[in-house]
Structures are given as structure tokens and as C-alpha cells.
Amino acid sequence: MPLITIGSADDPRLADYVRLRDVSLRRHLETEQGLFIAEGEKVIRRAVEAGFRPRSFLLAERWLDSLADLLAGTPDVPVFVVTEALAEEVTGFHVHRGALASLHRESRHSVDDLLGLRRLVVLEDIVDHTNVGAILRCAAGLGWDGVLLAPRAADPLYRRSIKVAMGAVFSLPWARLTDWAGAVPMMREAGYRTVALALADGARDIGEVAAELGPDEKVAILLGTEGDGLSQRWISDADDVAIIPMQAGIDSLNVAAAAAVACYVLR
Amino acid sequence: MPLITIGSADDPRLADYVRLRDVSLRRHLETEQGLFIAEGEKVIRRAVEAGFRPRSFLLAERWLDSLADLLAGTPDVPVFVVTEALAEEVTGFHVHRGALASLHRESRHSVDDLLGLRRLVVLEDIVDHTNVGAILRCAAGLGWDGVLLAPRAADPLYRRSIKVAMGAVFSLPWARLTDWAGAVPMMREAGYRTVALALADGARDIGEVAAELGPDEKVAILLGTEGDGLSQRWISDADDVAIIPMQAGIDSLNVAAAAAVACYVLR
Q1: With an 8 Å Cβ cutoff, is B32 touching chain A?
Q2: Nearest 5 degrees, angle CA B260-CA B190-CA B136?
Q3: What are phi and psi of A28, to 5 degrees?
Q4: Do A261 and B261 touch (CB under 8 A)?
Q5: CATH number at residue A89
Q6: Residues of A in contact with B166 (CB under 8 A)
Q7: Does residue B122 share a domain with residue B98?
Q8: Same domain, A95 and A197
Q9: For B262, how many CA atoms within 13 A lie in the half-sphere containing its CB?
Q10: How many domains does chain A have?
Q11: Could you give the ipTM of this predicted complex?
Q12: Per-residue pLDDT reduced to its tens digit, A213-259
């Protein structure tokens, strides 16, 4: 764990950490460089314990002690020691928890792996990282086996997703679909009963759908984007269309709340 | 609707809008001045339609047309017209939706009003505005009648709460408790069955608790802070302690997801 004190925000060794709030910059940088960022001691520990390999750490000095055991376990990984002001200058925001790590990105599971699991949550175009993180946490907590993401859904390894997921993104299997149009037919072929959650004509109460599920039936919940919900394509391809009964005059629940209810009711 | 073009971020007429990201500044400023901020055309409309009186509007020029009807309906309220750059300089962030309003804060309901309603969600020390907003939206959507907030819970009229609640904060009755220690006994006295959601010894499956509720029974769900959950005091004062059964090794759901499940199951 070579300790390297950094004195300038322009130091190229900090390239992994620049402008963490600039979503479009980060999206390119992280996928092209094959990295992701973990923020805060707890999340960093979980990532490393889950076997993700750190590229470097960026720490304010006061974090050296509390992370000493972890740093000792990764002896070749550089530790960049910075003031909090410098960390803020590089990242573009106040790093509340004072500790960041850059880790190697991995695709740990294939879509085929996921299709062997019994209960899946499938995210169509959910573009908000907070929602993706919250849904992963929910799915894991409520006993679902994995998450599939449509090509345009937000990145589960984006800093904010990871933070909200509280590490579930490291433990719960997930994979990215490459074929949006063929996704639901593929799931049906793999034996899933596909349940679309949507405010669509003919949708049935989710409790009624839940009551019909067999004890060992493979189930996939389909969840759509924050604004417009699921695409017509996915809705018409699904076996069931379910709604959570709502009060008149109220907009739908946000997608993370709807996912929580659906994961609970269909579990 | 006097249109006033503003050329400087220091113009004292913009005092309602300064540093919207500075939570502690805003907390003091908004409660002392008796105002709250609505962001985005949709939310501004809902606030005005719900009868909240605007103090002023802060708009980029391109929003004048789409809000023309609303501005015409509030002829005495000044409309400050600014460039997006100036709006950013004043508020401290890029105002994505280009439109802000400052409105008079009102306490529309008393705790006594709320205690006349059948189904309440009660927030202990939930300090995150996003969570408060999400829970209000959930409670309204799933047919709960009102929300009580403990003295330290976050402000439902804070900009971020309002945004996440999607206007439910204007339609759903809510009130602030002044007595934390006496809150649960007071609710029991008012005839509620109080159900604490907590990972506590002896907690029962929430589905089991739900099955015992009578069709007209008054019910209050108690929800605790993000980190530590409900206080021991509220847990021991409650009639029931319920948990949402979770997978081993996973942290609890976040409080907004747990609230969604609880509002659904106990509805």
C-alpha cells in the first residue's frame, strides 16, 4: 500500500476520480477505463470483500487508520492521500465520508446465468441511478435471485447506485440484456411467468396475480422507466399485466416504491 | 404579474431563492420567513392549485409562455425574469426545470385534525428529505389518510421533499408533533392500533399483524430514522412490533421501500 501524498488536483494519477458528479463524463470514463468508484468506508470494504480488485484509493489522512487492515491486504495498490479540500477540487463535491476507491469493473454474470435463477426483477429503461440502486437493494432484501437490466437502464456500478444499494450490487447477481426487443420472449422461453407492472388497460390487481403463482414457478417482474412506464412492446409480450391499486387522483408510486411492493407481494 | 428583469445575483429581491442547496441555511431562512420553494412547472402549478399563495416567481424567459395562465391568475405577485446563468448563480445549482416559485408556508392541519383520520403514517426522526417526500407520496397513493411527523423529522415543504412527493405534500394532510415522548400514548388514547416497524426482538411478520386488523380499526404505522430505526421508547410504547421478513445477510430495506411495503400490507 504505497502511500502517495498528492498536492495538486491536476495530478494525472487522480484521473479515475475527476468530476464525479458529471454523469455523462463518468459514464464514458468508467466504462472505457473499466473502473467503478466506491464511496465511504463501508461500501469500499464490501466491494473488496466481494472480490473486486482496487486500482487505487483516494483518502483523507484521517481514514488511513480505520482502513489500515484493508490497505494492508492490498499491498500493491496505491493509496493517494489528499486533503479534503483537494478531494473536493478533484471530484467536484464534498466527499462526506472522506474515502473513495477506484476498482476494476467486472461483468460477473451473464444473461444465461441469470436465466437459471427462479425469481428475477427486470428493469427496462430505468435511468436514475438512485432508483436502480434502491431496486437492487429491495430485490436482494426481499429474496429475489437476480436482476436483468435492459440496454438503456442505468449502471448498477455507478457510484450513486452502489451507495443506495448498500452493497447489494456486489452480492446480488445481475446482468445486462443486449436485445431489448427479444427480452420478454426470451424470458418466457426460459420458463418465466413474466409479470409487467403497468398502469395499462386490462391490468389486474397484483394481489390477484400473486395468488395464481405456483410455489416453484419461475417469475420475472418487469419494471419500466420513471416517466412513461414500460414500453408497449414489453407490456404486450408479458404473460400478466399487474397494477398496485392506487387512490384516485394520485400519480403512480415512484418506481422504487412500486418495486418494493411488487417484490413483496410476488415473492 | 409585474415582470421584473433582474440583472444581478445580489439583488435583494431574490433573497427567497439564495443557496437552495445549503440545507441548514434554507431551514432557518424558510421557517423564519415563512416560505417554501417549489421547483418546476408541474409542482408550481400543483402548489398554486392547492391554494398556497405565491410570494414571487423566478423564471427564465422561456417559461413565461407556458406559465402565462397561472401568472395571470396571480396579478400582484412579482415575476423575476433571469437568465439561467443568473438563476444558477443565485440558487447554487443548475435549475433543470427553469422555473421556481416562493410560496407562503402554512400549517394547514393540526395534530388534532390528524387524530380524527383512520389511517396514519407516523415518522419519527426521518431526516432525509427524499425519504420524507417518498413516504408522503406512498402514503397518499396507497390510500393512507395522513402523516404525522416527530419534532426532528425532515420538513415536508423543503424543495426536495416536495419534488419527490410529486405534489402529495399539498394534498395529503400532515402535521408536526410537538411532544416526541408522549406521541405514541397519545395515539393509543385516540384509538389507534400503533404498529412499529422495527428489527426488534419479538417483532412479528407484518403479514401476521395485518391479518389481525379489523376492517374499521384505526391504524398508525410508526417508522424510524434511516440509520438506527425507531427509538426504544416508541417501540415499547407501540401495540405491535412488525418486521418485513428479509433475506439473511442483507441490510434492512431503506425506509421509503419499507414504508411502501408497510402501507400496502396494512392498508
Answers
A1: no
A2: 25
A3: -65, -50
A4: yes
A5: 3.30.1330.30
A6: 251, 254
A7: no
A8: no
A9: 31
A10: 2
A11: 0.86
A12: 998 999 999 999 877 899 999 999 999 999 999 877 666 788 999 99
